[in-house]
Design goal:
This protein is of the alpha/beta class. The chain starts with 5 loop residues before the first strand and ends with a helix. α6 links the parallel β8 and β9. It has a six-stranded mixed beta sheet. Helices cover 29% and strands 21% of the residues. α3 packs parallel to α4.
Amino acid sequence: CGDKSMLIDAGPNSGEKELLKYLNSTGIKKLDYVIATHPHEDHIGGMDKVIENFKIGTMYMPKKTANTKTFKYMVQAMNKANIKPKSPTPGEKFKLGDAVCEILAPNSGEYASTNNYSIVMKLTYGKNSFLFTGDAEVLSEKEILAKGFNISCDVLKLGHHGSRSSTSDAFLKKANPSCAVADCETGNDYGHPHKETVDKIGRAS
């Protein structure tokens, strides 16, 4: 937004070259904000390379670790770059140029599912708004609704790649997006986006 840049997640290890190629093609030298939504490989796989190749302003991470090489490499890169991550606080807002970002989740200290530690964020730019949900599942959605956050949006990045674990009827109704995006690989092993989610969005449109 303007001369400010933000990166939400960094894809899997297998996509690091594509990610760096894309970021370099935009002419970006600094990422003012980097959000590592939660410590799963398909979300932080390329983060170590991003940290090594770009100047990082503020980095947000939930208070959740992982016993994986991917997580270890990210932390090593952060330590080398002297990056001290911020923990997300629901209700906290920050500006990205003329856009306003508000953190909506996670709202609890502990979850059985790592997906529910996902940082959920709403970005508002003028009259347009975007809801980025990481892999947040129905439990996290319920907490967001219970807190009374305004999740109305134009574009909804479907939770957990369009899995049936996310996008509850209540959450979708409140968000009421004009566009929903399922971020997943064609022919993936998980069957994402799940038919239940696609049908639900079809009924809501």
